[in-house]
């Protein structure tokens, strides 16, 4: 491991406005009240100091919930730097408070340009991390491509999203993954709750804050029926929308039909949908030929990690006029007069137009992150360069703590039950 250079020590935080810090601190403390599992981990880290001398770059949505994760890493002795994983998701008051109240450097400004975003990724690499906590794998990919001399410093990385894990697995397959990576998203206490209930609620929240439309009676098309799609469809149905699902995976499509949703190809859904939400992790799932079929007034948004799910270049080329009608809502007027409304510039609508997932689910996601980082540090030098699942006992422990905090007691197996579960002789 090399020692830190001048560059990494001279890092200057970049935030919108330090005067926002008092408001940000209130938000961070408010979120913390709903993050009991992370809070317990933070208390343990304070005593045990597992990250003493460890430099951690966290590339995440800079929200009040992430602030509590950053506090937890710092409490464990880490030298942590936080940068935004998306140009539109930063909560500027939170970023200010992290810098001024908690002494954690942050480079993130809501609405930052792609150039600034990439500059922050570069600054993160100049920090010469030992651990990267990533959301989308941009920092990991940049370090491997642009700063390979830093690889020897690295203990490993953790990844928050499905999209990022797909990238890591592709790197592993190509023999290009140079360290152990923990697939946080794959923990049950992450994707069952964050992806489903978190994305479900926060996506609807983003759509409503951006538009204030009534969903009841409208046709809402959910593009992709993974965990996020399931959550969005479930919550939209609960608000009275007529939900249509589009899918490419036959098993998921079948699941959607049995969950009571209409399933059809995107080209057919394009004609009847009032609101479209993409949650596939794939590129151009709503494309030119779909926009051509949409009704006047159709609302289109994305809640997948990257902003490439909607082909907005083709929409822009089709438009004769563009107008921002409200914050996070832009109207594209087609040459034939139809108007299509795009929310949050096609970026994650739940974080661009709302506040992301509530603290209560991020509690479990970030408990997994904190314990995954600890796992990498504790097992330094003993892990292979591959994508690892979160250990089963960690998942169980997080769920047990979450239940305890909610005051929910559950049964335990009796010795008789345990014996039965472990035997093959006893049958009918
Ligand atoms: N991803 C979705 N919601 C989030 C939140 N509130 N904080 C950080 N990352 C998120």
Low-confidence stretches: 1-9
Whole-number tally of structural domains: 2
CATH class of the largest domain: Alpha Beta
Q: What is the average of the pLDDT values? A: 96
Biggest sheet: strands side by side, in what order? Answer: 9-8-7-10-11-14-13-12
Helix content: 40-55%
Bound molecules: adenine
Radius of gyration: 22 Å
Describe the biggest sheet?
8 strands, mixed
Using the alpha-carbon principal axes, give the shape.
globular
Q: What is the β-strand count?
A: 15
Please tell me about this protein's structure.
- Strand 12 and strand 13 form a beta hairpin.
- By secondary structure, the chain is of the alpha/beta class.
- Helix 2 crosses helix 5 and helix 9 crosses helix 10.
- It is globular.
- Helix content is 45%, strand content 16%.
- The N and C termini lie far apart (60 Å).
- The strands form two sheets. Strands 9-8-7-10-11-14-13-12 form an eight-stranded mixed β-sheet, sandwiched between helices. Strands 3-2-1-4-5-6-15 form a seven-stranded parallel β-sheet, sandwiched between helices.
- The N terminus is likely disordered.
- It folds into two domains: 236 residues, Rossmann fold (3-Layer(aba) Sandwich); 156 residues, NAD(P)-binding Rossmann-like Domain (Rossmann fold, 3-Layer(aba) Sandwich).
- The structure holds adenine.
- The site of adenine has 10 residues, from helix 4.
